[in-house]
Design the sequence.
């Protein structure tokens, strides 16, 4: 615990009882964070910028006020001694974030040439406890120089810190503030600008130029977010390592770029697979093409393969070989938020994790587990930050929601993860599920990650969304063509993999009773039937109208069930289907994307063509026998409300008005084929062009996040050039990847009860983080209206010890999952 008399204190480590165990010097913390941030920022060729930010981020802790505060908190100053400061009353009141930002600005900001770089780096430093701040408010007020840089000495203590800073640290900061850091950062900014602007044709008009300028500025904002992420993760990682040295040991022992070991494991697993159906030979062919194209140079690829074509293992083969060839850091699978991560992650884990500790190679990140609470203090916030997921694993499975939150979400926990997307292979499983209002921001972000951060992206789906054919392309698109496609003959592949016929029931609205009757008829005639609905309420009603009869097996699936529960139901269904037993499953859309299961017939409530085709992918999946039957039904408008589901509603209208006219002409007895790629292209062309006005994430006041995070031209004073003008904080506060922000809760289901008990009693930080990762399989996201009802009925409890919200067992039903009214208590009390 001893430090020299001259040393300044950065952190205090305490035991669970509050005893002071160790002190970390400020110099050690600044150097550790500088080293880590430099390593992270090097992925975008900006290591000096990362090191500089790390060395100055806690510059304000050199102030006399902060040292009095932390010395009092550590017991080095006792009450009544000169300089003692009540640590409880003053917690969070001594600003230590702004001085470092001001130091960069005072050193570089006086020159027009250096001003943009100075603002970029200073903004990251002064924001590292809040999230990136607004450079310009939504009302047009300039905030950076007039507020943050103009804060007085009494509030930031900059001059005092500059005079008391450790001599060696001050010398290193001064060296980094020289032309080396400046030129490195300028090169990155110039590379970005030249890359974006060079896409403009010679005959571009004013609109194109303005759109292109917005994309440039948007990606400059992403560069700020990337550097911010590097600093955040470096700071949180070093703080957590000091607080719990076991975390540092685990991190040091974690596998890095283990591709040479993992590639042979996958190749051996693929070689052992014995073809059982004709489709298995096509899957092998798809896999072989992925292996060949993995040796190509980095960029954006498309993998357009019908459902059931084995995309998971084929794309994994591409990713492993590509990461090995280019020595990339990670592989990401980005899966729709309505999908099931567990199945694909389990398949990959069984192949890749053999002798390693479970979870050391493959990480599942379902949701944000650590909610903000209205009453938490600074200590709870720090604990939450240190437990937050940062995607530090070789292979990461996460959701589209978490991917978008890492790029645009509020606060610091989301942004902390962003830098790990650099130098990675990013596979977008079911790429068509990007929320439409986020499309422009998604396209610009993918362009940034691939061309600025050295990543490779694979848009993987049976229904390729044609993101290179968006209206007003210079606002953001992904120009992909035949050269980007991994498969050489997509139309032929779809013809070869045809396994279903489609039947139209959309000429008029059907009642729920008639849909249920159709499902029962298909179960009787085909032996198994899957019903896929757009909403939970519709699914619950149909399920209730299909009571189980003797010898039949009935299942319900929705996101009200935790992932572990859904996996158990899916395994039970697969066993029943393999045994030839009659199986009826009623599900929401979550079963459509990537779930390996095969029914003889499917009933799909009308939606977009992509959703219908994904549902059809669960029918006769392996080509086991004659073509399966897919029924598309339109339910009565008063039965299914899509008022809050605009993407589904608009997709459904395009299907009914554009695609269905040809569909309806088919022979009602023999059905028709909806799977051909040209039909998908027609669908997306109409769908995207009909929704061009919502792709920029409108805010409802006439503005949009694409512009708030870009040029901000509507409110920005042009005299501010070349400085940043984004409204970062206001945009992130308005951003939601989905319409209604959900809360992640832990449910006491199965082994989740034991994990919860261990989590609630764990003291060590490394152990809590390990258990939190395991607990994700026993989590459910609930929307505000459901949370309010359950809370009113005393069904939710927040546990500060592990920063999670837990559901009482009586609110979790063995058949339906989370319910709003308590069921009979099953014996576990979490209180």
Sequence:
């Amino acid at each position: 615990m001893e430090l020299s008399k001259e040393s300044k204190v950065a952190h205090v480590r305490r035991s669970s009882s509050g005893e002071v165990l160790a002190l970390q010097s400020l110099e050690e913390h600044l150097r550790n964070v500088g080293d880590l941030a430099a390593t992270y920022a090097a992925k975008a060729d900006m290591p000096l910028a990362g090191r500089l930010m790390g060395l100055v981020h806690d510059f304000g802790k050199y102030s006399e006020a902060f040292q009095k505060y932390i010395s009092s908190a550590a017991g080095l100053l006792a009450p009544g001694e000169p300089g003692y400061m009540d640590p409880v009353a003053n917690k969070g009141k001594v600003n230590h974030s702004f001085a470092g930002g001001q130091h960069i600005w005072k050193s570089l900001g006086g020159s027009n040439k250096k001003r943009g770089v100075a603002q970029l780096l200073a903004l990251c430093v002064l924001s590292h406890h809040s999230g990136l701040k607004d450079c310009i408010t939504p009302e047009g007020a300039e905030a950076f120089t007039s507020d943050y840089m103009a804060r007085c000495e009494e509030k930031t203590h900059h001059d005092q810190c500059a005079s008391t800073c450790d001599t060696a640290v001050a010398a290193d900061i001064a060296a980094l503030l020289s032309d080396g850091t400046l030129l490195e950062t300028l090169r990155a900014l110039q590379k970005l600008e030249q890359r974006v602007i060079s896409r403009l044709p010679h005959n571009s008009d004013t609109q194109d130029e303005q759109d292109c300028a917005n994309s440039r500025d948007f990606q400059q904002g992403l560069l700020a977010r990337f550097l911010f992420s590097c600093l955040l993760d470096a700071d949180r990682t070093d703080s957590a390592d000091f607080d719990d040295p076991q975390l540092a040991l685990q991190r040091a022992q974690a596998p890095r770029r283990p591709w040479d070991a993992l590639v042979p494991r996958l190749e051996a697993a693929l070689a052992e697979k014995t073809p059982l159906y004709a489709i298995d030979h096509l899957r092998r062919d798809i896999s072989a093409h992925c292996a060949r194209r993995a040796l190509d140079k980095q960029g954006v690829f498309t993998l357009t393969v019908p459902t059931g074509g084995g995309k998971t293992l084929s794309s994994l083969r591409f990713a492993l070989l590509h990461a090995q060839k280019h020595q990339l850091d990670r592989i990401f699978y980005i899966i729709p938020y309505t999908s099931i991560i567990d199945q694909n992650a389990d398949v990959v884990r069984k192949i890749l994790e053999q002798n390693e500790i479970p979870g050391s190679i493959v990480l599942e990140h379902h949701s944000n587990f650590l909610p903000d609470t209205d009453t938490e203090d600074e200590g709870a916030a720090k604990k939450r930050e240190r437990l937050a997921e940062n995607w530090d694993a070789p292979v990461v499975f996460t959701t589209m929601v978490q991917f978008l939150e890492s790029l645009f979400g509020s606060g610091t926990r989301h942004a902390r993860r962003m830098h790990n997307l650099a130098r990675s292979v990013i596979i977008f499983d079911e790429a068509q599920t990007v929320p439409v209002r986020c499309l422009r921001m998604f396209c610009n972000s993918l362009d940034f990650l691939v061309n600025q951060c050295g990543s490779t992206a694979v848009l993987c789906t049976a229904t390729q969304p044609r993101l290179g054919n968006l209206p007003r392309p210079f606002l953001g698109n992904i120009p992909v063509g035949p050269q980007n496609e991994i498969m050489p003959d997509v139309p032929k592949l779809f013809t070869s993999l045809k396994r279903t016929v489609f039947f139209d029931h959309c000429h008029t609205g059907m009642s729920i009773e008639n849909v249920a009757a159709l499902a029962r008829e298909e179960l009787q005639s085909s032996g198994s039937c899957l019903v896929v609905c757009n909403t939970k309420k519709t699914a619950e009603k149909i399920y209730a109208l299909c009571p189980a009869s003797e010898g039949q097996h009935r299942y319900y699936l929705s996101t009200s069930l935790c992932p572990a529960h859904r996996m158990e139901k899916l395994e039970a269904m697969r066993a029943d289907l393999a045994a030839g037993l009659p199986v009826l499953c009623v599900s929401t859309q979550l079963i459509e994307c990537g779930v390996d299961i095969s029914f003889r017939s499917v009933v799909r409530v009308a939606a977009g063509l992509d959703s219908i085709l994904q549902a059809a992918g669960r029918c006769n999946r392996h080509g086991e026998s004659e073509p399966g039957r897919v029924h598309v039904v339109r339910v009565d408008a008063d039965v299914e409300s899509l008022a809050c589901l605009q993407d589904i509603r608009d997709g459904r209208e395009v299907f009914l008005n554009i695609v269905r006219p040809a569909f309806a002409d088919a022979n009602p007895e023999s059905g028709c084929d909806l799977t051909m790629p040209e039909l998908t292209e027609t669908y997306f062309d109409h769908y995207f062009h009909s929704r061009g006005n919502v792709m920029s994430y409108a805010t409802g006041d006439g503005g949009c996040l694409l512009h708030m995070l870009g040029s901000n031209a509507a409110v920005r004073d042009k005299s501010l050039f070349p400085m940043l003008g984004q409204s970062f904080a206001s945009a992130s506060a308005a951003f939601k990847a989905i319409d209604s922000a959900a809360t992640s809760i832990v449910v006491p289901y199965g082994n989740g009860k034991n994990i919860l008990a261990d989590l609630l009693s764990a003291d060590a930080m490394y152990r809590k983080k390990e258990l939190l990762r395991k607990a994700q399989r026993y989590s459910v996201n609930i929307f505000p209206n459901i949370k309010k009802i359950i809370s009113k009925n005393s069904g939710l409890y927040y546990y500060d010890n592990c920063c999670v919200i837990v559901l009482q067992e009586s609110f979790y039903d063995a058949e339906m999952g989370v319910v709003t009214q308590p069921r009979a208590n099953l014996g576990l009390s979490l209180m």
Remarks:
- The longest strand covers residues 500-510.
- The two ends are 37 Å apart (CA to CA).
